What we know:
With 261 residues, the chain is an all-beta fold. It contains 1 helix and 20 strands.
Amino acid sequence: ISKDTSCVGAFEFPTYVDYYVKTRSHGDGSGRDWDNAMGDTSFARYFAIAPTGATFHVAAGLYHPMFDCSGKLVSGSGVLYKASRPINVIGSYPANAKEGDTPDALKYKTILSADLMEDDIFSPSQETYTVWSYDGFRNNAIAVMSITLKQAGACHLYGLTFKGNFPLFRGSSSALLIGRAYETVAPTSFVLDSCVFTKTYAGVYSTADSVVMRSCRFDTISSVGFSHSTYSMDESYFFADGCSFTSSNNGLSYLAQKGLL
Length: 261
């Protein structure tokens, strides 16, 4: 898989409100507009250090995480897109997006994949306790993206396809992890709009105070599509509209002491 390496090494981080991303860098690669879009490596690196409230606009194409939790460019199961500040990620722009283009999840696919070698195999299981037999995952990343906030805030994810996370049989793993860091007491909220979770061990693991899902699809998942569990006695709000759970071992798991479902 060919990678953009323009940002590896010393770099100056541009602090914009909006960052524009394509699979390969264009122009000066700063991400300030579509003509100067950052490439996949810069996107993976900047994700962890983008300022509060920043929005990544991501063109259609296939993207893989490349940095670990400490910000090191590595290979293997420890890579992921990780953020601790409230940010937004809007996908499903045309692959050759230009100024004025709008996202359309029905026409364009922005795929964020933990299947680093793109060699996963899903086949109908012959066992009685599971729907799918999942092979080829041992060289995958444990997660695609983690947004666990250390401050109050809201995050919006639109038009993203998540796939291929590595199953941790002792512990939890999922393609997308959302919520707040354990030591954080400030409320966090997430909106997932027109996102797809497919061909992965688990779709979403959430500890957020509020989650709104619209037009999301969970399909071909060997464990659970969406799993939510609050910290202790925290109140929780979960709203789903027009979402589908198909061909998965479990669709939705929700655990809360109080709140609204």
